[in-house]
Amino acid sequence: MFLIIIEKFLTMGSEKKLWLVVIILLVEIKVQHCVGNPIVPCLFIFGDSLSDCGNNNKLPTLARANFLPYGIDFPGGPTGRFTNGKTAIDFITEDLGFSHLMPPYANTSGFDVVEGVNYASGAGGIRKETGTHAGPDMNLELQINNHKVIISQIAAKLGGPDKAQQHLNKCLYYINIGSNDYINNYFLRNTYSTSRTYTPEQYAEALVQQYSQQIRVLHQTGARKFSINGLGLVGCIPQAITLRGKIGSSTCVEEDNKAVLIFDDKLRILVDQLNKDLTDSKFVFVDQAMIKSENYPMLKGMKGMTNRCCKVNEKTGQCNPLEVPCNNRDLHIFWDSFHPTEAVHKLMAKSAFYSSITKITFPMDISSLVKM
Ligand SMILES: *[C@@H]1O[C@H](CO)[C@@H](O)[C@H](O)[C@H]1NC(C)=O
């Protein structure tokens, strides 16, 4: 076959030959573009349902999303992502120049784990007990243990622990966790005891302490570039209103927001401290609580918290399987009772990656972090 092509080529007129060469070059450029030339060689993702891409699919938990209408706007349909399309870290993965999104730890088949893995698990938190009333999940400690398993695979592939370390030093580590330690722990007063054990101040302190230790463990495994995400205003999610009712003139449960903002303040201070302590590393804090309509005119035009796009099971707050969701999904902030739509995920990603318009990242945005 190949010989026939060469023979044809040799007998072609020179003008035809020139065109053929041009076409081959164009195809080559296109292929190279598709293969991707990411700014960082690898990306590891830790977190909860805001980042999960299918790690809970086989777990006996209510916190699963591998059925329609979840994934209705995702190429190929439902994957386990807790939204209609892509998540914020998916958009960041694309902005980094990767040609594919990171596979879930639960199924990396067909992917090269050297390039990255997603460990995020719906309902998971910093604390072990968080979210477990819904069934088992992967808390942050388990996610880091899973990362150690992947590291040994990477070492085997790259030819030893030293080679693996050199590689792991260059990766981006994206961590977005903690919401469930409030929504599916501290705020569930009948199910968990933490609200009786800790004041909001003490709870935030205990969480950030535990988080700090886990980040340091990750650093010991070779992580050097971190994006640490603060928590969004969880008092403004539809579930908060459903559970706690509308209080006064506020559209959000301000008491819940207040508790979470204490955590965010402490986390930002931790990131500052880590930048001072671990001088071989760089940590970025992403202030997700800044993503509100006062700062983003786009959100003002969207349907807010009482308008979930899909019909939800009031007990779980998740979309009922196979029910038809709203049509104008880009005009809704919330997809189900907990999770934003793809449109809002995209907004979160863009403002964390290029933070020039609204300053939500400290001390730099993710696009600058990965160039260091
Ligand atoms: C694992 O992922 C691959 C590729 O993404 C997919 O084709 C396969 O069905 C998945 N396997 C399981 C058991 O989910």
From TrEMBL:
Q: Which Gene3D superfamilies match?
A: SGNH hydrolase (3.40.50.1110)
Pfam families in alphabetical order: Lipase_GDSL
Q: Name one GO biological process term.
A: lipid catabolic process
Please provide, alphabetically and separated by semicolons, the GO molecular function terms listed in this UniProt record. hydrolase activity, acting on ester bonds
**Coiled-coil segments:** none
User: Which family would the database say this protein is a member of?
Assistant: Belongs to the 'GDSL' lipolytic enzyme family.
Q: What is this protein called?
A: Putative triacylglycerol lipase
Q: Which organism is the protein's source?
A: Lupinus albus
